[in-house]
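Entry for the shared binder. Reason: the reviewer on the internal report wants the predicted structure included alongside the sequence.
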Amino acid sequence: MEVPNSVVNVSSLPESEFLILKIDSSGKAHLQMNLQFSVGIWS
């Protein structure tokens, strides 16, 4: 499963997680780490 860097499905995230993603959106490595962690949970 590939997740494009520019696409984040925030509608499926809890509100707190969405806030964290917005705050840390300038830190791409941190954002990608969050995405990998979330994808790991979903799968």
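Summary line for the report: DSSP finds two helices and no strands in the chain.
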